[in-house]
Specification:
Oligomer: single chain
Distance between the termini: 160 Å
Structural class: mainly alpha
Shape: elongated
């Protein structure tokens, strides 16, 4: 290599160093790869620490557990979870059952007596129709005592006389119907003169034929028809019919 070449290379290197020294130094922002600083990038590239505490057991029945949810969030953030006590399902309570009259039978409460025969089986159905079951707990003496006790509790209501109809209650259309035997429309009583109003208008003021017949009897009927409700003279006002009362007596 010639001396000129060596000096040319040395001059170029010196110029490069001079230019680099004159350039402004960049501000150290601490930014690294991506959109975060270099230290965060290094921590994110490392695997999450393995938790050293006890393993979290899901709650019994699948219910939401706030402590377990918080521990899961801590593990995702790389924080070791605190110790969590696993929920323990409560054991069933055993109720001691003793023999005797206080022991329930089937679905019956403990207060039911043994000789009542109710709820004797596990099906909850009375065994009063089971001869063997009844014979095992009943005797002739106990059955006779129960019959006597039931008879003593019977209440016999003696019949009494029917109440009498007050005399001031007005005409009795039932007695009048039973005292007659002719059919409606058969004239028995004389009717004369010219009626001022028709039978329809005279009967229109009554709510029922029974009321018309009662008022007719109280105003002189059946011999006289002062209100114009019996123009044919059969003794029956408006459309009143005595035959249902006669049939009811038979």
């Amino acid at each position: 290599m010639s001396r000129f070449t060596i000096w040319s290379v040395a001059g170029a290197a010196s110029a490069a160093l001079f230019v680099a020294g004159c350039a402004p130094s960049p501000v150290d922002t601490g930014a690294g790869v991506g959109f975060q600083d270099y230290n965060s990038y290094i921590r994110g590239s490392q695997p999450a620490p393995v938790p050293t505490g006890p393993v979290v057991v899901p709650p019994v029945g699948g219910a939401f557990d706030p402590a377990a949810a918080a521990a899961a969030i801590d593990r995702a953030d790389g924080v070791a979870p605190a110790s969590i006590v696993s929920p323990v399902a409560s054991a069933p309570v055993l109720v001691p059952v003793t023999d005797g009259a206080a022991r329930p039978r089937g679905s019956a409460p403990a207060g039911i007596q043994e000789e009542s025969g109710e709820m004797a089986g596990s099906t909850g159905i009375s065994d009063e129709q089971d001869f063997n079951a009844v014979a095992a707990r009943e005797t002739i003496e106990s059955d006779a005592e129960r019959i006597a006790r039931n008879r003593a509790e019977y209440v016999v209501v003696q019949p009494t006389e029917l109440p009498q109809r007050p005399s001031e209650a007005g005409a009795n259309i039932v007695e009048f119907a039973l005292a007659t035997n002719h059919a409606p429309g058969v004239q028995l009583y004389k009717r004369g003169g010219i009626s001022v109003r028709s039978q329809d208008s005279a009967c229109a003021k009554y709510a029922s034929p029974d009321q018309a017949q009662q008022d007719f009897l109280e105003r002189g009927g059946p011999e006289r028809d002062r209100i114009g409700v019996d123009p044919d003279g059969d003794g029956f006002a408006c459309s009143w019919d005595p035959r249902p009362f006669r049939t009811a007596k038979q």
